[in-house]
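Marked as duplicate of an earlier ticket. Keeping the data here for the record.
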Amino acid sequence: MNTLRQKLLFELLWLALTAVLIAIILSPIYLRIDFQYPFYFTNAGTIIIGMTFVRYIFLLRHHWIAASSWFKLIMVFIPIPVFFFLLNSLYDFQAFLDEENIYSIMENLHFGDQQKLGKYIRAEFVFFWAIAFVANALMPFRMILSVWRKINKGTH
């Protein structure tokens, strides 16, 4: 029972760290352009997906539901709708860049600040999107491997 409590605390710690990371990453955007940035939800979603899936891929044995075959089976199929969310989010972001331009939401900033913030927004969005996309693609394989190990070797 004590190890279950430790694993739950470990999960809560990671959720808190993910929330702190989202706040750190999105705060420069919020502090400069407030609510004019239309991708807060999408950006936070890609960070959550990326961090959570990477954590499940590499630290599954420390997770409190690592022994659950049902959870692993569900995590084999969860990446399908996540894949469509990620593709849609990248498409929407790219369409926004192409049609409206990132600088349209930064009219209150000087040109140099617009350039810096525009590069930051594009870089962090694509970076975390790529992490989420790769982790999403690897998730079913990791879960299948874990189920196979549990059945055949008794490990996770």
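See parent ticket for discussion. The two ends are 19 Å apart (CA to CA).
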